[in-house]
Design a protein that fits this description.
- By secondary structure, this protein is mainly β.
- The chain has no helices and ten strands.
Length: about 110
Amino acid sequence: MAVEFVQTFTWGPIVNASDLQTHYFRIPFPGLPHIVASAYLAEVSIGQKDGRVGTAVATFKRFEFLDGNGFMQETELEAVSSFLEVDRCVSVTIALDLDVATGMGGWSFYFLS
């Protein structure tokens, strides 16, 4: 497979000096592409509050795709994932979770042919 197109996103920095904040953003993909995606923290600063150390995570929350019968399916990810591959992709929801931290996430999407 060859890479046809690359699309990148960054989000942040977002500052959170308190308890866990979850931030989600849905990215639609017209044309049902086959994508491979990666997530990373472009910037991070971890704090400490009440004896606990902060965390910052850039990941994927869910994705939508068309199945073999042409019906849209949604998959919610249960664990942190830095990589994702979706055929016939409708959308991907990215996540930037911060707990006593400042962070900026980055996501890259590779469109395969």
